[in-house]
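Open question from group meeting: does this chain pack into something compact, or does most of it stay loose? Before anyone orders reagents, we agreed to write out a predicted structure and look at it together. Recording both the input and the output here so the notebook holds the full record.
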Amino acid sequence: EEWLISPEEAPSPGAWAMLVWAVGNTSKFMEQVIREQLKINSQKEVDTSMKAVDVQIEQIEEMLRGIKQ
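Structure tokens returned:
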């Protein structure tokens, strides 16, 4: 196979090994990448929804403080 880079140009031997493996196992590599990306996106959605809840709680607390005064 012809490579655009040489093993010496790879950031580490592990990076080169991963490149060689990924080229030979594209579907398995993409399956793992997509699975990790879904985990990351899922966590971002949880973080975003928690921030929205925090803002709503703060707004409610502020309204209640306004009523008490």
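Observations to bring back to the group:
The chain has a mean pLDDT of 83.
Residues 7-68 form one domain.
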